[in-house]
Amino acid sequence: MTPTTSGLPHAYYEFAEFPWPAELLQDAGSHPSSQAVQAYVQAYAEHFGLLQHIRFRCQLLRLQLVPQGGWAVIYLDKASGLFQVVSADYVVMATGMHVVPNVPVYKGMQHFRGLQLHSNDLTDPSLLAGKRVVVVGGGRSALDYPAMVTASQVATSVTWLYRQARLGLQKDGLPLFRHMLPPALPGLAFVGCEAASFNIPLTAGLQAEWLAGVLAGAVGLPPAADMQDDVRRMTA
Question: Is 191 exposed, middle or buried (0-12, 13-18, 19+ CB in 10 A)?
Answer without folding.
Answer: buried
